[in-house]
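Annex B.
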Amino acid sequence: MTEPTKFVFFGDSLSDPGNLYDLGEGIVDEGVRNSIGGPTNSVSDGIVFTEYLDQIAGDGAALNYAIAGALAGGSLSLGELIGGSIGEDDLLVPLDDPALDFDINLSAQVDRFTDDFEGQDVSDYTAFILIGGNDYSGIDTSDIAGAVAEFASRVLAAVGDTLASVLQLQQAGVSQIVVSTLPDSIFFPRAIDLSPAEQAVSQLAFGIHNALLTAGIEALADNGIAVEIIDLGPISRALAGDPENFGFLAPLSDTLTEAGGAVLDDFAADQVAFFDDIHPSTAAHGVIAAYLAHALENPVHEYDDQSNFALLGGADDLIFANGGNDIVLAGQGNDLGFGGEGEDVLWSGGGDDLTSGGSGHDTIRAGAGADILDGDSGDDALMGGLGDDLLVDGLGSDTAYGGFGSDSFVFTQSDLIGGDAPDDDYFIGGLGHDTLYLVVDAATAQALGAEVSTQELSDLGLTITGIEEIIIVPGRDNLDTLSDQVWFAQADIWGVI
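Phospholipase/lecithinase/hemolysin-like protein: predicted structure tokens.
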């Protein structure tokens, strides 16, 4: 996808930018309708991954047929969805209104796309399908035999209708079709409250769905259908294993809608990974989109929670080291590396790399490119290389050395990133014209004024040498004032800043 891609999306609430909200106009009570989602009418606090992915890799004009609540298998009318989840008392139309017959499921979404473009050339579109999680809700597990039979029926319908939709899109002339697996079930906060047995059943159900879906897609591809499977497992497991690696400091069980948004008393919205117990926050949607944009074109490497050693080649690699004390040596491509939990050694190669240590005492070293180095929590050592690097401080007593280029350092006041006392950080600029971005709360920014003294830096827990310029950023809400920096977009979407 070197050229901007013309996307058309199909799916459920993870992909829906507000289509269900639009369908409810004049049908459902306005107060209930407005309570379903967030400020952009998606089931999140902002835009969802489909919109981010279109911004990153698309042409900015994606089509989206996804509808929140949709299933992969069978049919489901809007009236049935409303009756099952919202309540008939909130309807503004009679139960026999034709508008309630509108089918929201996958096959109907694809039908609407093919009807909309009947007789037209759609070969320049890439179809993206992510759906299936809703198909397994509400199975009664008290009767094991009955539950197994019900699951078997549902998984065959979900996977079978997904494969049928792929064939329908291919027959309509769509040139490329991408089908995503479901995220790992442990990714969702709802799984945290399940018993170990229930968690195992949930993981098994999603695992069987993904295995059958993958086998079916690969069989279609082997028979000449232009379709590929993309695996959401690695990013969902990495997010669940060490959310701090992606800037999520709040516990995963704390969501933006729980207890009236009480989590925002302690964390910023972009430090919270979930909108509710099954829907990611817009910040997490951004991370998912960044992952997908990479995985559509480039290799992804996922390691287990042991202590691993990885030596990579010249491709643009994405590495999830996960738990354990890992050693990762990246190659010459433009790589992305996430250390996860443990005390990791991450060494960038010759490209323009982004490397984030995660929790633990990490050592991160840049190579020859313009690299982004992120320490996260722990007492980390960040060493820039030959290029103009970005070095981002986290909690813990860190040492950051810029190296040979004109480097940028980002220091954030500890209580803005979950700390309760200053750390003991040491930043060394090195050669070149180096800049320190000092992110502090509004009161501290006002007290510092135009000139920042050595003592004032010390009070914040920071000692610097060889840094030529200091720029004060009054609060994390104003980080977007740095959006003109070449490193900002990538650092922001991955949750580094």
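Residues 6-295 form a domain with the Rossmann fold fold (CATH 3.40.50.1110). The chain is about 30% helix and 15% strand. Further annotation is deferred to the next reporting cycle.
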